[in-house]
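task queued by scheduler; priority normal; single chain, no ligands, no partner chains; default sampling; output format set to structure tokens
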Amino acid sequence: MKKHISPWAWIPTLYFAEALPYVAVMTISVVMYKRLGISNTDIALYTSWLYLPWVIKPFWSPFVDLLKTKRWWVTAMQLLIGAGLAGVALTIPGPHFFQATLALFWLMAFSSATHDIAADGFYMLALTPHEQSMYVGIRSTFYRIATIAGQGLLIMLAGYMETSTGRIPYAWTLTFMILAGLFIAAFLYHLYRLPHPATDRAAKEVNRSNLMKEFLATFVSFFRKEGAWAAILFMLLYRLPEAQLAKMANLFLIDPISEGGLGLSTQEVGFVQGTVGVIGLTLGGIIGGLAAAQGGLKRWLWPMVWAISLPDLVYVYLSYAQPESMWIISTCIFTEQFGYGFGFTAYMLYLIYYSQGSHQTAHYAICTAFMALGMMLPGMVAGALQELVGYRHFFIWVMICCAATFGATALLKIDPEFGKKAREGK
């Protein structure tokens, strides 16, 4: 008889480990490349391509279900991510560090996307439905803690080492070595502490023709849903302003005042964006969730559209005023991220709404793929556009793109009872 392992022993560490590589690939890499002298155009273009594994993960998620156990996939991906982080650390001092580290970030992106599939599947297999509801807040909390640790503390640590050693590549090498050590430790811990659910097993018989038939039927049924094209436009365009803003925000904070930026140090960026900003994002998400639980998606949809759009104006202000006060900068970033967290609630609720019915899990995975694509494509051109027109005009352009958010939302048709039924337990 196997010893019972408390969910508290593995849920916090599992979701901390799920968030950290995503933060490393999508956020820490941007700051690192900026400090190592890569242009805004190249940073935005090449790091946006790193979204691709999250875009296409629905295509290989069935194989995670069929081959090996979820536990095996979780631990194997953590080992692979740890090796990738160590590889980044070792290649930063090299002459072709940009190409080498990008290749390793690609490896980590695919490993992280696969880890997401396996970890979420393992969560559902290892817990009863009651336990899943009980611990959902814990997993979200530790995901956010990892985000603060990555975007805030680790970037602040890199900034401290930049200042204390005077050697920027060396500082980032040490930072990624620490990250690698954390992940190898997570791998070893989960190797022994993750439970072995009886339902977590690989498929004994895989019928290739049936698999492909079901796979194709799932995709076809997604596009045949009522209002499919309006839904897809919404998934792609709701975050069009944020997709461009998110890619350039840290670069704007770092660039010198003479080039239109705010001239913050790496440590200051880690504090303002990675700590104050993430706290604002988290609070906005919590309040958004509470509001939607009370009134339903339809009631709160338009207030959330305004919330995700209007606070982008703070970047127009920052680019024109270029304030030196950290209090003013922090307040602006907090405001924008709070609005984004509140407004993003409507987006996530709509994905759940659209995924209802048969093939719900697979359809939700496809929705998240469109979500990632909506961030990837605008982000790719954001750097070139900013360097062409400058930060001031770029942020005005971001505000103009809010029209796409409003237009895509206006096309939606939502059942007024959605959200109310869930609250009433129906």
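post-processing summary
- The first helix runs from residue 11 to 35.
- Confidence is low (pLDDT under 50) at residues 421-426.
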